[in-house]
Model the fold of this input.
Amino acid sequence: MTQNLTLDLDLQTDYFRAADATAVQKVMAAKDGKPAEAFESVRAKRIDPTTVLRRLVAAVETKEFEAGGAPDRSVWPTGPQPWAPDEDGTAPTEIDQEDPWMTGPWVVELADETRDTLALIDRKRLPELAARWARAEELRPLATAELVQLIHRLGVLARRAKKADQHLYCCLSG
Done:
């Protein structure tokens, strides 16, 4: 079941819940692997997990946003990154632009701390959280009503993931 939030921006992000990275990798390895169709998900555009979602987490925790925080773990693609040094420590001189690491899609597993914080979202706080989150430069083209809807959906997804002892993931594609 995918819930859509249609925004006219470039980066497509699908947040979803799954039991583990192996289940996600199995879906991604399938031809035209689409986790948003295989798992309960929330679709949004340009809500990247590294910066924009962490701004929401900071708002839920009533803290100021700071870069960093609980790290996300790459789940897809698998295999060595094309820019990683060889066994002898030398960096590659040329990177294959068709490598899955360069073309995507990419999937990251969010830290369970992020899931647990999102699971704390209370309906009563939705307008306040949307107002705080809307201050982020990346969200300026979005209406507060769209943010309220997205925050609510992410909170529900996180609560269901936590209750089922699952993890949250984000699939990013261009």
User: Anything to note?
Assistant: The chain is about 35% helix and 15% strand. The first helix runs from residue 21 to 29.
